[in-house]
Amino acid sequence: MNVSLILIILLVGAFATYLAGDKLASKVALFFGLASLGSSIVLLNHYNLGENISFISQWITQPNISFALKADGLSMAMLLLTTALTPIIIFSSFGNQYKNSKSFYALILFMSFAMAGTFLASDGLLYYIFWELSLIPIYFIALIWGNGDAEDRKKAVVKFFIYTLAGSLFMLVAFVYMYQQAGSLLLEDLYKLNLSATEQLWIFLAFFLAYAIKIPLIPFHTWQANVYQKAPTVGTMLLSGIMLKMGLYSVIRWQLPLAPLAAKEYMYIFIGLGIAGVIYGSIVALRQKDLKKLLAYSSLAHVGLIAAGTYTLTLDGLRGAVLQMIAHGFVVVGLFYVAEIIFRRYETRAIAEMGGIRTQSPKFTSMFLILVLASVALPTTFNFIGEFTVLYSLSQINIWFAILGGTTIILGAYYMLKMFQHVMLGETNSKVFADVTVNEGITLVLIIGVLFFFGMYPKPITDLITPSLEEILTQINRIN
Amino acid sequence: MNTLIAIIGLGVLCLLFEIFNLRKAIVPITIIGLLGVLGLTISEFNSTESYYNNMIVVSKFSSTFSSLFIVLTIFLVALGHNFYENHQSKISDYIAIKIFLLAGAVAMVSFGNLAMFFLGIEVLSISLYILAASDRMNLKSNEAGMKYFLMGSFASGIILFGICLIYGAMGSFDVTEISELSQSAELPIWFPIGIVLVTIGMLFKIAAVPFHFWAPDVYEGSPALTTALMSTLAKVVAMATLYKLLSVMNADISESFKIIVVVISMASMTVGNIMALRQTNVKRMLAFSGVSHAGFMLMTLLSLSTSAGSLLYYASAYSLSGIAAFSVILYVCKNRDNEDIVNFHGLGKTNPLLAAILTAALLSMAGIPIFAGFFAKLVLFNQTILAGYLALVIVAVVNSIISVGYYFKLILAMYTKEPNEERKGTPVIIYAVAVIAIVLNIVLGLFPSFVLDLLA
Fold it and tell me: Is the pLDDT of residue B45 over 70?
């Protein structure tokens, strides 16, 4: 049994969903999503027992490319994030009717397939292929099932596609260059390369372009808010919950260990960029009138902090970043789902048109409040652990980074609570707000459950990721 | 050699069919015949033989490329079934001309003598001139045929002039003799001049900048099926021939010549892509995209001794996606007087299968992974960096990004616009060709070694 099983389940699931027809599509997709979650938990067990669940086989002889999937703790954590969020995301869409839903759900599963592949691949080209492949489904999801004016949407989505493609093509050139030095693109072979400082700088920058656009970091973030707003909620969840974690994961897995000299040399610049994102994202979020856009900018602020954590090159920084990646993945999916629940009832995303929901639906209000508090890193939530660890690691580097980065909590609390106040509180809204349905309730409770559970007991995840992060750190700190 | 004879036999058979009034059977029988020829070619794959005093040399290179040409011709002949529905009385002429064109193509990649090369290129070109003008009541088609003929014959003249200069320098038409003589220290100045003239003629045929001006007009004016033929078959034939010509005559082309290749390659990519961005006619757009792909394929000339496999792979990837794209265009623009992008509006709703195929074909051309086009570019970039032209690769990468712009214009039109009218009928053959071509493309993408290792 090895990790290729998950990929096979998701891929077969995508085809099966398409063939199942419009009526059954969502249920078939959910089934395969749960199957992949189940099998990744089984695989995690095997992994914890010390079995080898990696998979490698020669794919192309000339150039020498392998189909290599390597599962270590970090990959498993990200894989679990993907396979756990996929069924939640699919389930969250049950209240909506989509035209041509067989293609819609097939694309969601296909996208999970590509993202899971990105997290597992340990051959540069295979990784690149999965990385690019994940772009195609989200392009169509946002384009066809998105909302708002078709022309605006088209512009936003095409911009997003060309941006990300442009970034990753330079990554491809970096891979081709390294291939010629190493004669293989397997991660372990690339780790053995002895690249000069200049070469590392160029490789670092080529990777950086790809990741900075995907994450997104300032000043490469301009595609983000529009696409988040225009995409259907499912697409936004996929993008913010999982896809941008691909960029952060890749920084840890590929960029830092392959170009450690450059990473050390210019550490301050990149931490600075991350923190600039925190402040910029928070301030812009303050002024948003559209709920989804506000969440998009808050997401920009949070990932800025995560990126700053990874670039500290300390164990705490990396660990905090990974924890926060997972926590943010869940909480952002929850928040976008809340926006969707409100949209289903009020048909609007403008904050000004909401308000006075609390009295009509206290259950929904409390769940929303918990998510808001989790997002601003209240202690006992998972986000607190992630954000605190990252801030701690930043303070080890330079106390000012921690202070500036800490504004995410203050500003975050300010704009999130202000948003909550405008959306939920106030005089009872004249428009009727139906109470949450069972499906909606289950989804939110699941997400909140995860956030609280790991908030109080993060040990399983820390134990899972720490050994592989230490391995990556030795690679970063090697002397060459 | 057997391939060539069999193809010509098949062409004659096509003409005979008309006499016996068997026009209905002509397409299926030609396809079966071509499949037989394909089998014959593959069976001769490992033999290296020369015939008639080195007039024809059958090698791995020639048999792999011939196989590709035959596969493409099968697709094009199959598409002819629907396309010539309204011209039943001439169908045998059209099919026969295509078969003769294939004979010319095969001669062009298996020549051992410059005379044979010239014969091949003329057979190919004359067939193309006829096909370009084959919609004889249409003014645009006439214009296209005339334009192509005038420009093409001019290019042929230049090639011929080049061959004469080479003969003057070397005293032989035989490529092996020329190659041996070219190793000697003192070469008369007109030998390189001759090579340059022949190259210019071939660059005209593959429509590389600055010899591309004919392409958009001719592509637009010609009947759509002929455009498909020109942009897939004719382009890869010319490219393979140029490659073979340069590699058999002087394996190490000089540094200054390489610089010219780099410049032309960059110019073709950039001009082709930028012009394509502005087109609203799909055929013109694909013409310019073809110009930029010619620029990509020219990169193989920088590492002549090792890049035959990657040229074969690129040519297969490009032409298969071209066939898939054009079969959709044939379906959409049937009975329309133009191929404007407006015709594609809403295809994603009215015909999701063909829209998906066209999308896949365009993604392959743009070089998105899992489609063969991605590996084609990857292998090409790898080889070019290895040959030491990092700057060229960066220009190529930037161009790949630009190209996404116009490929996506078409994809967007299919999925975001409202359909303007219903199209009736489900032409099975067009579906079959499109599906098979795109499946082959994806299979090539999943198993690149299969083709790459053929000429390794």
Answer: yes
Q: What predicted TM-score, i.e. pTM, was given to this entire model? A: 0.88
Amino acid A262 reads A
Say if residue B106's pLDDT is above 90. Answer: yes
- CA distance linking residue A275 with residue A306, whole number of Å: 9
pLDDT at A38: 92
What pLDDT, in 10s, does the model give residues A435-448? 888 888 888 899 99
Residues of B in contact with A180 (CB under 8 A): 382, 385-386
Smallest Cα distance from A64 to chain B, Å = 10
Q: Where are the alpha helices (DSSP H) in B114-234?
A: 114-132, 139-170, 175-181, 190-206, 214-221, 224-229
* Beta carbon pairs, A and B, within 8 Å: 79
Q: Which of these, A365, A228, A245, A251, lies nearest to A298 by C-alpha position?
A: A228
Do A237 and A89 touch, CB atoms closer than 8 A?
yes
Closest partner CB to A170 (pick from B370, B397, B416): B397
Q: How far is CA A190 from the centre of its chain?
A: 26
Give phi and psi for A347, each to the nearest 5. 55, 35
* Residues B134, B141 contacting (CB under 8 angstroms): yes
Closest CA to A428 of A372, A355, A365: A355
CA distances from B257 to A395, B68, B178, B326, B375 (A): 59, 29, 18, 35, 27
In A, which residues are within 8 Å of B400 by CB distance?
Answer: 169
Question: Is ipTM strictly over 0.85?
Answer: no
Q: What is the mean pLDDT of residues B107-136?
A: 91
Q: Which of A164, A336, A374, A333 is nearest to A241 (CA)?
A: A333
pLDDT in tens, B363-416: 999 988 889 999 999 889 888 988 888 889 989 989 988 898 889 888 888 888
How far apart CA B111 and CA B128 sit, in angstroms, is: 20
Q: Domain extents for chain A?
A: 278-480
Question: Chain B, 371-390: which have a CB under 8 Å from a chain A CB?
Answer: 374-375, 378-379, 381-382, 385-386, 390
CA distance A350 to A360: 19
Which residues is A57 bridged to in the sheet? A67
Question: Are the C-beta atoms of residues B400 and A169 closer than 8 Å to each other?
Answer: yes
Please confirm whether the linkage preceding A63 is cis (ω < 30° from 0): yes
The Cα–Cα gap between A217 and A251 comes to 12
The secondary structure of B386-420 as a DSSP string is HTT-HHHHHHHHHHHHHHHHHHHHHHHHHHHSPP-
The SS3 call for residue B281 is: strand
Contact (Cβ atoms closer than 8 angstroms) between residue A312 and residue A272:
no
- pLDDT at position B50, please? 86
3-class DSSP state of B135: coil
C-alpha distances out from residue A390 to A52, A79, A259, A274, A397, Å: 31, 22, 22, 12, 11
Q: Taking Cα atoms as reference points, which of B199, B17, B233 lies closest to residue B131?
A: B233
- Candidates B306, B384, B404, B406: best to mutate against A (most CBs of A within 10 A) is B404
Contact B397 A172 (CB under 8 A): yes
Per-position b or e across A98-129, b if 16+ CB within 10 A of its CB: beebbbbbbbbbbbbbbbbbbbbbbbbbbbbb
Using an 8 Å Cβ cutoff, are B174 and B113 in contact? yes
User: Could you tell me which chain B residue has the CA closest to the CA of A134?
Assistant: B369
- Percentage of residues in chain A having pLDDT higher than 90: 11
Omega before A260 cis (within 30°)? no
Give me A192's structure tokens: 């053995």
Looking at the complex, report in whole angstroms how far the Cα of residue B409 sits from the nearest Cα belonging to chain A: 9
Q: Treating both helix axes as pointing N-terminal to C-terminal, what angle do A438-456 and A362-375 enclose, rounded to 10 degrees?
A: 30
